[in-house]
Amino acid sequence: MALVYRSGYEAALELNPQIGQRLQVLDAYTFKTRSPFIGLFGAHVDDTFREVLIKIMLTVGETPRGRQVLQLYQGNVMDRASVSEIAPYKALLDKRRLLKLPGSARKVKP
Questions:
Q1: In Å, how far from its chain's centre is CA 53?
Q2: Would you say 97 and 105 are in contact if contact means Cβ atoms under 8 Å apart?
Q3: Mean pLDDT, the chain, as a whole number?
Q4: Cα 20 from Cα 97, distance rounded (Å)
């Protein structure tokens, strides 16, 4: 079993149609947010340092190398998200954490 981006799966199918004969999509999950990519800071990160890093990251698209990073992740801009916007990611991570616990795979409902 694997969790993959749909675009990657579809690209693999284009390159090797036999993949579609051997693999089955069990569930499709769509994040209802602006982007499927997020970055999080740990609770131990100093507030002042975090704000400095965020300020720098919001200007990443203003440099050639920064634009390369955005292109790599198929993005146009880097933006700050509110805590409520990352709730779907947190729910998925929590579910994954539960599934990794020994003997818990049968207890978690999809």
A1: 20
A2: no
A3: 81
A4: 29
The predicted model scores a pTM of 0.51
Q: Around Cβ 36, how many Cβ atoms within 10 Å?
A: 15
Burial pattern 79-91, b for ≥16 Cβ within 10 A else e, equals eeeeeebeeebee
Token pair in block for residue 108: 């978690």
The residue whose two tokens read 């089955």 is 24
CB 12 within 8 A of CB 19: yes
Letter for the amino acid at 84? S
96 φ, ψ (degrees, to nearest 5): -60, -45
CB 18 within 8 A of CB 25: no
Q: Is pLDDT of 82 > 70?
A: yes
Q: Which two tokens stand for residue 109?
A: 């409902």
Residue 45's identity, in one-letter code, is V
Intra-chain end-to-end CA distance of the chain, in Å = 15
Which tokens sit at 43? 């609770």
